[in-house]
Design goal:
The structure is a single chain. With about 230 residues, the chain is α+β, with helices and mostly antiparallel strands. It contains three helices and 15 strands. Strands 2-3-7-6-5-8 form a six-stranded antiparallel beta barrel. Strands 9-10-15-14 form a four-stranded antiparallel sheet, with helices on one face. It has a three-stranded antiparallel sheet with strand order 11-12-13, covered by helices on one side. The chain binds zinc ion. Zinc ion (ZN) binds next to helix 2.
């Protein structure tokens, strides 16, 4: 049985309780978790597990359908625990993730460009673009992205059957799960949608002003940009 991934339905959930499924040394598996495991260009959450003592969660990762929490000390065998995620860090990840979707939506719709990779950090995000993007286009792209922010569009997430999946639902080759019958879609209402397993803010206004801070020319069809949020 897989871990119930609370972060998929409610990315704003900071605290939760769960029964312990299994543990081995510093590695803990819970029945349900709000901790996001590393994946899809989004870093894992950190935080605390509270049982008979307090454990720091230093890493979270996923194998198959199971989420593993790596603690800073050996787990003592409590039957159930409370988890608290480091919200400040997670919220920065959410804002950057939605910012990447806004930019990749614009790049795809207005320029026909695909994103070949992305990485989110707490203070910036990076995108690799498979397109002959010249540097002088960046102010225009940045302005379009900030228009979407200013419009305050709702962001929603839901599942579709795999048979209803269309190629144009992918902007970013990130974490499509082969074999899953259901695909999770993240939609910026009235703008764009993408197949995605990450955590997002619920309105584009929460992203804040997007600044394209760095441009690297890594080849004719290979450009890298960095963004910051103000
Ligand atoms: Zn994404």
């Amino acid at each position: 049985m897989g871990t119930l991934k609370l972060y998929l339905d409610d990315p704003y959930l900071i605290e939760f309780e769960s029964n312990v499924m299994e543990y081995n040394g510093k590695i803990l598996v819970l029945e349900r978790t709000a901790f996001y495991p590393e994946g899809g260009g989004q870093p894992c959450d950190t935080g605390k597990i509270l049982g008979n003592r307090e454990y720091n969660v230093i890493k979270v990762f996923k194998e198959g359908d199971i989420v593993y929490h790596e603690l800073d000390s050996e787990f003592l065998g409590e039957k159930n625990v409370r988890g608290v995620i480091d919200w400040e860090k997670r919220y920065l990840h959410m804002r950057h993730h939605t910012a990447i979707h806004i930019l990749s939506g614009i790049l795809f719709k207005d320029y026909g460009a695909r994103i070949t990779g992305s990485q989110i950090y707490t203070d910036k995000a990076r995108m690799d673009i498979n397109y002959e993007l010249s540097k002088d286009k960046l102010p225009e792209i940045e302005a379009k992205a900030n228009d979407i922010v200013k419009k305050g569009l709702d962001v929603v997430w839901y599942y579709i059957d795999r048979k209803d999946f269309k190629e144009d639902m992918v902007r970013i080759r990130e974490d499509l799960l082969p074999g899953d019958e259901k695909l999770r879609i993240v939609e910026i209402k009235g703008f764009d949608l993408q197949a995605d397993g990450g955590t997002h803010v619920k309105n584009t206004a929460e992203v804040g002003t997007i600044k394209i801070s760095k441009y690297e020319n890594k080849g004719k069809m290979n450009k890298r940009i960095y963004i910051n949020l103000l």
